[in-house]
Design brief:
Elements: H1 13-26, H2 28-43, H3 48-68, H4 85-95, H5 97-117, H6 131-162, H7 165-172, H8 176-189, H9 191-210, H10 214-235
Amino acid sequence: MTNIQFVPSAISAGECVSNGWETLKLKYGMYLGISLIAIILTGCVPCLNVVIMGPVMGGVYYVVLRDMRGEPVDFGMMFKGFEKFVPLMIIGLIQSIPGILGQIVQYSVRFAELGLGGRGGRDFDFFQISDRDFAISSGLMVLFIVLFIGFMVFSFVWWAVFFFAIPLVIEHDMGAVDAIKLSARAAVSNIGGLFVYFLLLILVVIVGMLMLCLGVFLVSMPVMYIAGAFAYRQVFPWMEQQFNMAPPPPTAYGDFGTRPL
């Protein structure tokens, strides 16, 4: 594996989002189309979405990173991620674990609510419950809050660990395991910036929701996709891959090497 270096404490969350917005404005139609297709494939295709999430997001990164280098881009390039299907699929599958666990927790809470609300066919009245029922309800609520906070912390850490893995595969043709390991090390060195970036993304989504919710799809998601590539580039600066490692000829610095003493 190539010795790929990353920059610690390099993420400027505000610049990532700002650059994402400016880039979106320049090629709005293309990025909107890419974002909508990515949302449909990764969010609206049951079971298959966790399999293709990695390749789809890899294609999004491919387009944005090329655009950042000033290279020509087009809509069809978003499917370039499928050329590295296996490593990106593996990363996407592992990265989806918290989402799957979240769905399990959600259904568990719903079943608990049904159990509290319909015991023995009786209506559940919060203002007429017994002390025992109140204690049980309060305990379950506290437990739910603790589990929710713990789950959010776990989700953030998990998200941060995998944040750089997909673009690393796209740009450096790395294997899934190597990309995850390097992504985790870079995330630990940039955990503060990633946390601020995470909070800022939540704010971007909220702003989109205030725009009759359509803003989430028309603005928020495209900006988030592009901003992710800018965050990656801050941590993994782009360098020319072609280096002339051959030693210079003896005459490169004059004829001192052949001149008799």
